């Protein structure tokens, strides 16, 4: 197998976006009949690499080789023609169309008259699912499918296209234990049949179970490409992290005070069930779990964005009215949302206006907003959070991701909340700013603010939290004190592999 | 890896013929609602005719029904074209101006050149409409102007050209060839010719949307534009084609208008775009694209025309009729939204049940 040239290879590929170097001299070789893991922390450049292979991005430097010949993919269609199929973490299906139509869109079988041969198309869909060993209803609209089933539709699509290279971008991130096992059976079968698989994951046991080689990236740079057989899990973690965990997460000791936030048997039908926990003053509590476990949904319900069907929320002992963000804000709650571009900021407005947005009453003079008060407030917080900017009147959109996140934080901190909920506070921001955000959260806790942190990054959870709550499929399945929280204990609970 | 035919053996399935499980409850609900969308309009029509017929049996007479068909056929045809655009998550507000331009242009040419063959005029009007549609399509598909804004602009532009061309002139029935005017009043087997033309358009376009790859791609684009790009669909080309087809149908509708009403000036069909969009929405076509059929849209047009006629027969104050029509449209859409919410809740519950 090794004497044959790789099916698909990258040679010293670099890609940058503006000033951010997302990939630096990365090389990678995918062989037929092999699963190859791509490992690295969030922000290491895995997604950029996947998008480069799928033809979405064009590399600034370096070459892509297909069967040893240099190629240039012109858009995703070009990559597809070359036999490269990508299964994204969030599948890209047409919600209104049936499973069958989703598989064959753009390439429907036709009769001689040019009309779509629906019976033939449906039969081929049934056959594909038969081969995958998963009985999916081909007539069902894609809208109702779980993420796991949607991925299988994507895989069926790739099969129907005769893909030779299957790229799976964190396919297991949102799956339950059973669903992961089912996916692995499918992938192993594809591998046996000579398909080259690129498997992106940061779950070590999955990489060791499925893959023959692993390529590690760190901060956009190529670290190493090894045979799995030559590595121990510890070696791989060292390659991924490349630094000591403790140094990155300066956790200040804080003595938990009285209870600031109580969530009691909170249920939103079909989303999360019977969630109870407390957060004390001065405490950082992490809410861990897989994507789709219902963590952000709990946060949204607490903050009054979504309704809950049963249970209650108390802030400092006082019951919170449901479905009212303004009541939540008045009670001293703040929510820094997951998606800062969509939910956290008004990208076209200036830094100062964004910071003032959540506390307009504080900068009001009579019926009007005082520009001077707005500016003073913004200047204060910009200084405190060490925001890097040229002018406060610049649009937030021009800032880097990390600095945008600081603006969102400033907006909420300016209200002096007693409880702050941060959803994925460091997603997509650089390592330096990450450490600053962590320091800030730690300081806030030390000042007596209760912090509830939702995070998918295990090192962050383990480094920052006084306690770790773990959600799995809408339920709170574990509460782990700092001393006992390890990557294994949190992951086991998050994937539902032990009923803790 | 091999192709689908020579294919990969199954993971753990020796049996190629894996049984398809019966659709769970949520799916049956979904398909039922999808069908109910058209059935609901038929039911509403039934109610309307039943009630009005009881109050005033003349409403159910052949002449009255024929009038309703005739009155709805032009809007129905425009609704078919509009559906093509709306399923791609776009909208065309300029149709009424295209109808006006085509009606007046066609009439003027026939009035000024008595010998010109009628089929040539019809073809010319369709072409003129297609040209207008192409302009809309280029603005939206290539220049990336939001459809709402682009077609609002062309709504005024096309109408302005119409005004300038007409210069206050009006073409009367006497100026047009009798053969042409008879198209507007002719009947085949007792059915008005115009209604048959509209019916043919509905059936042909409906068939194309369902059975041709290009038709399915329009739905795909409206359902998820990003996924459409990833699926290798030529999104721009399809969107332009949808606008061109809609323009061509508007051009044809313009000729029909001239034939039916005989008297044509530059203000023809002003404001009709809203009737058309109302018909499309009432007909169950999702305004944000991805779902709906031309059959529903055409039925929506018939329903709206029937409501107007029924209100007149029921002697509802003419001034109140518009408000009542509007209220009925809102009722139809609220009903639709409630159904959609119930489906979403059912799917949410089912997914949760499956996961646990």
From TrEMBL, chain A:
Entry-linked InterPro entries: AAA+_ATPase (IPR003593), ABC_carbohydrate_import_ATPase (IPR050107), ABC_transporter-like_ATP-bd (IPR003439), ABC_transporter-like_CS (IPR017871), P-loop_NTPase (IPR027417)
The protein's name in its UniProt record: Ribose import ATP-binding protein RbsA 1
Gene3D superfamilies: P-loop containing nucleotide triphosphate hydrolases
One Pfam short name: ABC_tran
Gene name, Swiss-Prot/TrEMBL: rbsA1
A GO molecular-function descriptor: ATP hydrolysis activity
Residue ranges annotated for the ABC transporter domain, each copy included: 8-244, 250-498
GO CC field: plasma membrane
Transmembrane segments: none
Cell membrane is among the record's keywords: yes
Compartment annotation: Cell membrane
Membrane-protein topology: Peripheral membrane protein
Keyword annotations of the record: ATP-binding, Cell membrane, Membrane, Nucleotide-binding, Repeat, Sugar transport, Translocase, Transport
Source organism superkingdom: Bacteria
Major site of localization recorded for this protein: membrane
From TrEMBL, chain B:
Membrane-spanning ranges: 39-62, 68-86, 117-140, 186-209, 239-259, 274-290, 297-316, 322-344
Disordered as annotated region, ranges: 1-26
Bias kind Low complexity: ranges: 9-18
Ranges where the S1 motif domain occurs: 26-104
Cellular localisation: Cell membrane
Keyword Iron-sulfur: no
Role description: Part of the ABC transporter complex LsrABCD involved in autoinducer 2 (AI-2) import. Probably responsible for the translocation of the substrate across the membrane.
Protein's name according to its UniProt entry: Autoinducer 2 import system permease protein LsrC
Species of the source: Planobispora takensis
